[in-house]
UniProtKB/TrEMBL annotation:
Protein name as annotated: Uncharacterized protein
Keywords for this protein: Acyltransferase, Transferase
Keyword Transmembrane: no
Single GO term (MF): acyltransferase activity
Pathway(s) the chain acts in: Lipid metabolism; fatty acid beta-oxidation
InterPro entries: Carn_acyl_trans, Carn_acyl_trans_N
Catalytic activity of the protein: 4,8-dimethylnonanoyl-CoA + (R)-carnitine = O-4,8-dimethylnonanoyl-(R)-carnitine + CoA
Amino acid sequence: MATRRLLLSPVSCLRRTQALGAPAAPGLRRGYSSDDSFQYLHRSIVPTMHFQKSLPRLPIPRLEDTVRRYLNAQKFVCLYNQNTLVKRTFVQ
């Protein structure tokens, strides 16, 4: 019996208590979707797209500005040789 207790790891004990229905630790409980308090959007009687037509239209940015922003963002993501390849692709 004593050797069996030595072989049990904390993980196996945790699994056993969860299988028996006991909470893993006091104060912890599983959160299922029965409680909607975690939702970001609140419930409203106003439809989602109700004010869409009254919003101002945003201008479409110029292609050169978009490419410049994209290449600046790629500097930190790509390696140097990949970055030069991406620049060459946009220059053509």
